[in-house]
Specification:
The complex is a heterodimer of chains A (251) and B (329). Chain A is α/β, with parallel strands linked by helices and 251 residues long. Chain A has six helices and ten strands, in the order E-E-E-H-E-E-E-H-H-H-E-H-E-E-E-H. Chain A has one domain: Rossmann fold (3-Layer(aba) Sandwich). Chain A has a six-stranded mixed β-sheet with strand order 6-7-8-3-9-10, sandwiched between helices. In chain A, strands 2-1-4-5 form a four-stranded antiparallel β-sheet, with helices on one face. The radius of gyration of chain A is 19 Å and the shape is globular. The relative contact order of chain A is 0.17. The C terminus of chain A is likely disordered. Helix content of chain B is 68%, strand content 6%. In chain B, strands 1-2-3-4 form a four-stranded antiparallel β-sheet, with no helix packed on it. The mean pLDDT of chain B is 91. The chains are: A alpha/beta (251), B alpha+beta (329). Chains A and B meet through helix 2, helix 3 and helix 5 of A and helix 1, helix 7, helix 8, helix 11 and helix 13 of B. Bound molecules: adenosine-5'-diphosphate, magnesium ion and zinc ion (4 copies). The site of one zinc ion has 6 residues of chain B, from strand 2 and strand 3.
Chain lengths: 251, 329
C-alpha cells in the first residue's frame, strides 16, 4: 500500500471562535491527485491552510509524510501556492527573484545560491513557460502569468507534494493551458497533488479523486461524478500536423 | 576654511554616510511589507527614550535604542495578532511616544531647543562616543540587511509562503522591527527622529521608479540615501538649518527628478517587452531536438494521459509521438 502523504483526522478548525471545519478526514496517498471542490466559503482554503500549518487545529490532527505537523521540518517537500490574485509586493521584484524564494527551504543561511539552486529555479520557470519573462518585474505581468510565477515558486524546491489553492481562478486561456502542462509534468513524475479548484477545465483527466466540501463538512469523497472527458476536450494543438500519424513511427 | 577642516564635520559626515546607507536598506523591507510608516512610529517612540536619557543622565543614544526596540517589538506583536484594533493600538503608541518624550524632557529641565536637535538632527552635536555607537549599530544593521536578504525578501514578499517554506517568520519579522528601531537611533543625530522615516521611504520610492528587480532597487535606494545625506549635512554647514530638513528636501528633489525618467523608462520597456508566449502553451508545433530514443509503454519513462494520446516525461519535458518524430508538449 502506498504511504499517506497528507493525513487529516477529525480536524476541527475555529476562526474567530467560530467552527469553520467540523471533523474533517482527508487522506492523500503518494502519487495521487486530489481536488477539493465546493462553494465559496465552504472551507476549502481553510482545509489546505490547516494542512500546511498556517491555521492551527482546534481538534484532531494533521500529518504530513507520516509526521505530525508539529515535528515536521522537511518543508522543502511541500510546495504551496496560496490563493492570491497577485505575486507582486511593495517593491519591484523580477520573476526570477520571486521564484528563487521558493528555493530557500533547501538553502543554508549566509550562503549564496549554488549551481543546483539556480538550475532548479530555471527549471521551475521553464515549467510554467515563463523563461522569456524571467527578468521582467512580476507587477508588469498579466494575472494569469503572475499565478504561474507562484506555481513556479512552489515547484522551485522540487517538492514531493504540491498544495495549490485555486491556481487557475480567473486566469486567461493560455495560463490555464500552461498550468495544465506544468501539472501534467509534475504528475508524470509520480508526485502528489492536493488542489482546490473552482472548475476542472482541462485538468479533469489528471485528477484521481474529488473531495467536496459543504459548510465545513466533507459531503463527497471519491471518483468524480462526471466522466472527465466530457467536461472538456483535449487541447487542439495537434491540428496543424504536417505529417500523418498513419505514416507510422520511425518508419 | 572649508567644512572639511572641522572635526565635528568629519563626525557628522561619517554619521550621514552610515545613516544614508542603513535607513534605505531597512526601508526597502518595510516598503516591501507595506509598512512604510513604521519608521515614523518608531521615531516617535524613540523620543521618549531620548527624554529618559536626558532625565537620568544616561547617554540618550542607548536609552533611545532600548525604548525604540521595545516599541518595535510591541508593534510587531500587535501586528502578528492581526486584530482589527491593531491600527488604533499603534496610533496610541505613537502619540504616547511623542507626548511622553516632551513631558519627560520638561521634567528633566531640558529646553525645547535640546529636543529639537534630536527631532531634526544637528551637525554639531555628534560626539566621538555617539559616533562609535552609531557606527557599530549601523554596521550591524547593514550587514544583516545584506546578508539575510534572501530570507528577509521572502518574508516581506509573502509571509504565508515563507512560513510554509519553514522559515522562522516571527523571528524575521521581529528582526526587521528591531533593525528599524536601531536605524531610527542611528539616524537621530543627522536626519532626526521626526524625519527619519522619510529617509527610509523616499529613496526606495525614487529607486523603484527606475528599477524592476528587488536587488537593484535595494542597491540604488542605498545610493540615493547617501547622496542627499551628505549633501544635506554640507548644506547645513553653510546655511544654518537643521540637517534633517535639508536631507529630506534633497531626497524629495531626487524623487521629483526621477519621475519623468521613470515613466520614459517604463514606456520603453513596455514597447520592447516580449509579449511572446511559450509556444507549447499557444498550441504551436514544437518538435524536440535530436531524439534517438523511442518511447513505448515499457521504455521506463513515466507517462501521463494528455487528451487523445500519451506524453512521456523525458529530461524534465513532456514528449509526445508525432509522425516520425516527437513533439514538446
Ligand atoms: N480569517 C478568518 N477569520 C474568520 N473567518 C474566516 C477567516 N477566513 C475565512 N473565514 C470563514 O471561514 C469560512 C470558510 O472560508 P474559506 O476556507 O476561505 O472558504 P473557501 O476557500 O471554500 O471559499 C467562511 O465562512 C469564511 O467566512
Ligand atoms: Mg478559498
Ligand atoms: Zn522513453
Ligand atoms: Zn501531449
Ligand atoms: Zn523523449
Ligand atoms: Zn511534430
Amino acid at each position: 500500500m502506498r504511504s499517506a502523504v497528507v493525513d487529516v483526522r477529525r480536524l476541527r478548525v475555529d476562526l474567530d471562535d467560530r467552527p469553520v471545519l467540523h471533523s474533517v478526514d482527508l487522506k492523500v496517498v503518494e502519487g495521487e491527485v486530489v481536488t477539493l471542490l465546493g462553494a465559496n466559503g465552504s472551507g476549502k482554503s481553510t482545509l489546505v491552510r490547516a494542512t500546511v500549518g498556517l491555521v492551527p487545529a482546534a481538534d484532531g490532527e494533521v500529518r504530513l509524510f507520516d509526521t505530525p505537523l508539529k515535528s515536521f521540518h522537511d518543508w522543502w517537500r511541500v510546495g504551496y501556492v496560496p490563493q492570491r490574485t497577485t505575486a507582486a509586493g511593495g517593491v519591484p521584484a523580477t520573476v526570477r527573484e520571486v521564484v528563487a524564494a521558493g528555493r530557500l527551504s533547501r538553502r543554508a543561511l549566509f550562503r549564496p545560491a549554488g549551481k543546483a539552486d539556480r538550475a532548479a529555479v530555471d527549471h521551475a520557470i521553464e515549467l510554467v513557460g515563463l523563461t522569456d519573462h524571467a527578468t521582467r518585474s512580476v507587477a508588469s505581468l498579466s494575472g494569469g502569468q503572475q499565478q504561474r510565477v507562484l506555481i513556479a515558486r512552489a515547484a522551485a524546491s522540487e517538492p514531493d507534494l504540491l498544495v495549490l489553492d485555486e491556481p487557475n481562478a480567473g486566469v486567461d486561456h493560455r495560463s490555464q493551458e500552461a498550468f495544465a502542462r506544468a501539472l501534467r509534468t509534475f504528475v508524470a513524475s509520480g508526485r502528489t497533488v492536493l488542489l482546490v479548484l473552482h472548475e476542472m477545465g482541462p485538468l479533469a483527466p489528471l485528477v484521481d479523486r474529488g473531495v467536496v466540501l459543504d459548510g465545513g463538512r466533507i459531503v463527497h469523497d471519491g471518483p468524480l461524478p462526471t466522466p472527465p472527458m466530457t467536461l472538456t476536450g483535449p487541447p487542439d494543438h495537434h491540428d496543424d500536423h504536417r505529417e500523418d500519424y498513419g505514416a507510422g513511427l520511425f518508419g | 576654511m572649508s567644512f572639511l577642516d572641522y572635526d565635528f564635520m568629519h563626525r557628522a559626515l561619517i554619521a550621514a554616510v552610515l545613516t544614508g546607507l542603513a535607513a534605505p536598506a531597512v526601508g526597502t523591507y518595510l516598503v516591501q511589507r507595506r509598512l512604510a510608516l513604521m519608521g515614523d512610529g518608531l521615531g516617535h517612540v524613540a523620543l521618549t527614550g531620548v527624554a529618559v536619557g536626558l532625565l537620568t543622565g544616561w547617554a540618550p543614544v542607548w536609552t533611545s535604542v532600548a525604548v525604540a526596540v521595545l516599541g518595535a517589538l510591541a508593534i510587531d506583536v500587535v501586528r502578528a495578532k492581526g486584530r482589527a484594533s491593531a491600527d488604533v493600538a499603534l496610533a496610541m503608541l505613537f502619540y504616547g511616544g511623542i507626548a511622553g518624550g516632551v513631558l519627560i524632557t520638561g521634567l528633566a529641565g531640558s529646553t525645547a531647543a535640546t529636543l529639537n536637535t534630536y527631532l531634526f538632527g544637528s551637525i554639531t552635536t555628534v560626539s566621538q562616543d555617539d559616533l562609535w555607537v552609531v557606527a557599530i549599530l549601523a554596521a550591524v544593521v547593514i550587514a544583516l540587511a545584506v546578508g539575510l536578504a534572501p530570507q528577509l525578501f521572502a518574508v516581506c514578499q509573502d509571509e504565508e509562503f515563507a512560513r510554509v517554506s519553514g522559515l522562522p517568520v516571527r523571528l524575521y519579522s521581529m528582526l526587521i522591527a528591531v533593525m528599524a528601531a536601531v536605524t531610527v537611533t542611528v539616524a537621530m543625530r543627522t536626519v532626526g527622529l521626526l524625519l527619519v522615516s522619510a529617509l527610509m521611504v523616499v529613496p526606495v520610492a525614487t529607486a523603484q521608479q527606475l528599477t524592476r528587480s528587488f536587488r537593484t532597487t535595494f542597491a540604488l535606494a542605498m545610493l540615493l540615501g547617501v547622496v542627499p545625506s551628505l549633501g544635506g549635512v554640507v548644506f547645513s554647514y553653510y546655511v544654518d538649518v537643521a540637517p534633517g530638513a535639508s536631507i529630506v528636501v534633497a531626497s524629495l528633489i531626487g524623487f521629483v527628478l526621477a519621475w519623468p525618467a521613470g515613466s520614459l523608462l517604463r514606456r520603453r520597456r513596455a514597447r520592447r517587452s516580449v509579449n511572446g508566449e511559450d509556444p507549447r502553451v499557444t498550441g504551436a508545433h514544437v518538435p524536440t531536438e535530436q531524439h534517438p530514443h523511442q518511447h513505448e509503454p515499457e521504455c521506463g519513462h513515466p507517462t501521463v494521459e494528455h487528451g487523445d494520446h500519451t506524453d512521456y516525461l523525458h529530461d524534465g519535458h513532456l514528449h509526445a509521438a508525432h509522425g516520425r518524430h516527437y513533439d514538446e508538449h
